[in-house]
Amino acid sequence: MAAANTVVSLFYYLRIVARMMFSDTRPTVHVLVGQWARTTMIVSGLLLIVGGLGAEMLMEFTDSIGFVR
Staple partner for 37: which of 8, 10, 14, 32, CB 3.0–4.6 Å? Predict the structure, then answer.
């Protein structure tokens, strides 16, 4: 049974890889340019950095006030 699953999954994934590698058509990519797009990217990046760096401080704060039991 495992061999049959392997063959089916190889067929499925290799078909996708072959289509990506050997296809002549290229999809059109639409790039958003403008003040709203730039502002959204900056705010999202800052929230990601602050959230990643501030997670430890938030955990220490909740431990100090006894929020997590």
Answer: 32
**pTM of this structure:** 0.43
Q: Which long-range contacts (CB under 8 A, 24 or more apart) does 51-58 make?
A: none
Segments in the chain forming alpha helices (H): 2-22, 35-64
Question: How far apart are the C-alpha atoms of 14 and 11, rounded to whole Å?
Answer: 5
Tokens of 6: 């392997």
Nearest-Å Rg of the Cα atoms of the chain is 23
What residues does each domain of the chain span? 2-64
Give the span between the Cα atoms of 15 and 35, in whole angstroms: 40
